[in-house]
DNA sequence: GCTGACCGAGAGAGCGCTCTCTCCACAGTC
DNA sequence: GACTGTGGAGAGAGCGCTCTCTCGGTCAGC
């Protein structure tokens, strides 16, 4: 491999390449950056010199003059909840969703030569540190993963003027901010239609937290769809998108409405918690109670029986977030188009 | 917030601060970098000027001259296995482990003002691109998460001379490379002692892949401990650390040894797959078969009943990786001490 | 054959910072 | 009083790159 020739003592610079190729630094720079106004013969000899020297551009020097960082920040915004002992680990990082998003982002960013910076914000101090870091142009754009409804970060980021895209519809749509989301209501409708199509008549739902857009939308969508199917009065119990919350919500549901024969649970993780509660109460799934989840996360496969669930194409959505950002970098000051993806129903054993 | 005064049109530079404070650029630089040879009065006025202007140093300019990047790379090395359709998402990213590691790393890196770059390597092309990127000094150190045994990356990274630390003992310990790991054998011993202490006598194990250090060590440790407890002939069936692999391994185990009353499953994820197989074969857990897992991952809680499992302190281990790297940055050319953490047994319902 | 347009390549400034070197002021020594 | 020593501040170079400006050369048009 020719790159081995690059001595670690003094890295190869543009100047070195220029000398080897017998041209000026500027010409090498043109070749590296793909300028069209270069004589093909010179281009070839420059390319050979680059290969021979194992040259790789120095990012720092480049960003110093271009004022671009060639990197975007993945900001994970957590509610402040530092553990009493041991290092802090947010909910987001342990959520399988997170990894899928990272994968989808890198899939677009890597070919574009853009680095992904991982940043965490979980209290006022870290937030203001984050914002001042971002203001100084250390990154070209921001992908924000926010886990809670009353997050000031979308607002703060908008004010920095940095291209920003949110994962999921923001709570307060005050500031015009781009987001990528799945059509939550359509997903809930898929669940409703499937349960009704199965002949279930006493259908309830375990919703997500109603202060989160995803929680609201899935409930609204489900109720609307059920009403359209002739079932205007759907019982809903609020959960919190966690496994424990799912178990607790299912207990409440069964206590108040023991006769249900179908339930739409607004996240797979909640379903994972809710299923054992059903068994303990002597219900079989899907024979006695049909269950439809939401997300098609790994939790859906961990359930027994495996969960019929509404799939959101997380990886594609993440790729779209990256793409959206990249396009905005190209044309500064563009408007902020959002993207909404279509969910699909994945049929497994639970309904 | 004073930082609001920083105009996005032209960021505040050292020069600006110097002018406001009535000193030279060099003096401001000294204050920023905490040099001791500054008159207290000047220091104060510089600090005020920094606050007033909302100055934040330009990283690119700084790295250009210091030749430090103030960032470390988190390299995720995956076996090449691009999906036939849709974006690629590696196993590592969807593993809850990954998020815990990120959390632990950030916990140390953030206070030190060091950024975390996320990089992915999954084939020869991306590997050589990665290595040449790293060679050029774009990062100060590397944390490597490798998911497979025959990974050439540890070797490649060592040759770059960059401070590197591995998550988990490397397969080939040819090159002296630092790593952070849990004492796998001690963990397996905890499982063995617990199962035997429960009075179980027909104990088997579902091991991890035997071409991976973690797989080997857990099996060796379990067998050694069982032998010491008077049970030299432990049946072992090899799994692959996945949920599906766990189910498959358990089927084979039951087919060949239906009389078992205790089993050590070398990862929680495999246990998650194995438990339903036990139920389908009419065994109760823990009454008929006691089950001990390994990892104390979220999968342990997802199991029904919840899993008694060997806990490895992932977050602390990640923090140690970051700390180890930071220390090596300070004193270049240091030796490479590794760190091995002690596992503990977490008692839940499955054993 | 001369002028002007045009195209490709080089010269050189300068991005914001660090760091060495120089210089100044003051104190101490003979 | 001249000299040396010392601590603290400023001047200035230069990190590696991009990009504008300039300039030389070629060619079409009159």
Summarize the structure.
The structure is a homodimer of 351-residue chains. Chain A has 351 residues and is an alpha/beta fold.
Task: Explain this structure.
2 copies of one chain form a homodimer. The first copy, chain A, has 351 residues and is of the alpha/beta class. Chain A folds into 3 domains: 2-57, 434 Repressor (Amino-terminal Domain), CATH 1.10.260.40; 71-182 and 315-340, Response regulator (Rossmann fold, 3-Layer(aba) Sandwich); 184-311, Rossmann fold (3-Layer(aba) Sandwich). In chain A, 44% of the residues lie in helices and 17% in strands. The first copy, chain A, is built from 14 helices and 12 strands. The first copy, chain A, has helices spanning 14-21, 25-32, 40-53, 59-66, 91-94, 96-109, 124-135, 153-160, 184-197, 213-228, 243-256, 268-280, 298-302, 314-330; strands at 71-77, 115-121, 141-146, 164-167, 178-182, 203-207, 235-238, 262-265, 290-295, 308-311, 339-341, 344-346. In chain A, the strands form 2 sheets. In chain A, strands 2-1-3-4-5-11 form a 6-stranded parallel beta sheet, with helices on both faces. In chain A, α12 (268-280) links the parallel β8 (262-265) and β9 (290-295). In chain A, α7 runs parallel beside α8 (153-160). The longest helix of chain A has 17 residues, at 314-330. Chain A is elongated. Chain A starts with 13 loop residues before the first helix and ends in a 5-residue tail after the last strand. At the A-B interface, α4, α5, α6, β2 and α7 of A face α4, α5, α6, β2 and α7 of B. Chain A binds a DNA duplex (30 and 30 nucleotides) through residues 11, 13-15, 23-27, 29-30, 33, 37-39, 42, 57-58, 60-67.
């Amino acid at each position: 491999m020719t790159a081995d020739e690059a001595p670690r003592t003094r890295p190869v610079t543009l100047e070195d390449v220029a000398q080897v190729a017998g041209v000026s630094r500027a010409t090498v720079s043109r070749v590296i950056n793909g300028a069209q106004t270069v004589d093909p013969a010179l281009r070839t000899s420059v390319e050979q010199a680059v290969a021979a020297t194992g040259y790789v551009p120095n990012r720092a020097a480049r960003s110093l003059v271009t004022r671009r960082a060639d990197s975007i920040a993945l900001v994970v915004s957590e509610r402040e909840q530092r553990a009493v002992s041991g290092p802090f680990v947010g909910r987001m990082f342990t959520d399988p969703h997170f990894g899928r998003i990272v994968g989808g982002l890198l899939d677009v960013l890597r070919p574009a030569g853009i680095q992904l910076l991982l940043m965490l914000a979980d209290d006022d101090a870290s937030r203001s540190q984050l914002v001042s870091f971002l203001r100084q142009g250390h990154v070209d754009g921001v992908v924000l993963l926010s886990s809670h409804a009353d997050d000031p970060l979308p607002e703060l980021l908008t004010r920095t003027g940095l291209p920003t895209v949110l994962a999921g519809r923001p709570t307060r749509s005050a500031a015009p901010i781009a987001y990528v989301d799945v059509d939550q209501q359509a997903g809930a409708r898929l669940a409703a239609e499937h349960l009704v199509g199965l002949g279930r008549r006493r259908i309830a739902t375990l919703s997500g937290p109603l202060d989160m857009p995803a929680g609201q939308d899935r409930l609204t969508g489900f109720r609307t769809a059920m009403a359209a199917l002739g079932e205007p009065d759907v019982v809903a119990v609020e959960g919190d998108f966690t496994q424990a919350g799912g178990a607790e919500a299912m207990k409440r549901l069964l206590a108040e409405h023991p006769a249900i024969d179908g339930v739409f649970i607004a996240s797979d993780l909640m379903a994972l918690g809710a299923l054992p509660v059903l068994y303990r109460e002597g219900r079989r799934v899907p024979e006695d109670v049909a269950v439809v989840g939401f997300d098609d996360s790994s939790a859906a496969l961990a359930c027994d029986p495996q969960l019929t669930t509404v799939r959101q194409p997380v990886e594609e959505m993440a790729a779209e977030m990256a793409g959206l950002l990249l396009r905005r970098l190209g044309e500064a000051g563009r408007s902020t188009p959002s993207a909404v993806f279509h969910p699909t129903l994945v049929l497994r054993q639970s309904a």
